[in-house]
Write a structure and sequence with these properties.
Blueprint (H helix, E strand, L loop, with lengths): L5 H4 L9 E4 L2 H10 L5 H4 L42 E10 L8 E16 L2 E13 L5 E11 L1
Antiparallel strand pairs: 1-3, 2-5, 3-4, 4-5
Length: about 150
């Protein structure tokens, strides 16, 4: 018997509204310092280090809305799943162009797949989300694929 029904599956392919973010040299420098980057191009803010886009297009959560581990509580749009314990299943990032100060980047997220498997300890539901980041010319800068696993 499947845990996922048609209502769940209807979320596949649905895009969230685009989010545009202006990239500043100071933002890059702060991120570089916070992640202990060593390369001058990152520390000077000439180029953003890898993983700079991680949560860049997410809403800023207020402290009282966060889980004890500091992560936002289920803020991503998507179906309510019958399995509630969610863990990270992996992230893949393809960087096509460097992120530099002065750009305005636009991110569009969507659920690209939703499927289930039987694990050693019971059923698992996999939610695959993509984030496509483009520059002002509409060219792809970064593609990110994240998989969440509910059990």
């Amino acid at each position: 018997m499947s845990l996922l029904n048609e209502t769940h599956k209807e979320w596949i392919g649905n895009e969230e509204p685009p989010v545009a973010i202006a990239i500043s040299r100071r933002d890059i420098q702060k991120y570089a310092a916070a992640t202990e980057q060593q390369q001058a191009k990152y520390l000077c803010g000439d180029e953003a280090p890898p993983m700079f886009i991680f949560n860049l297009f997410s809403d800023i959560s207020e402290l009282h809305t966060m889980r004890p581990d500091g992560l936002a509580r289920g803020t991503a749009p998507g179906p309510s799943l019958p399995l509630k314990r969610v863990m990270a299943g992996g992230t893949e990032i393809r960087q096509h162009k460097p992120i530099v100060p002065g750009q305005t980047l636009t991110g569009v997220r969507k659920i690209t797949d939703l499927y289930e498997k039987e694990g050693r300890t019971g059923p698992l539901i996999f939610t695959v989300r993509s984030l496509t980041v483009t520059d002002e010319q509409g060219e792809i800068v970064v593609e990110e694929i994240q998989t969440g696993i509910a059990r």
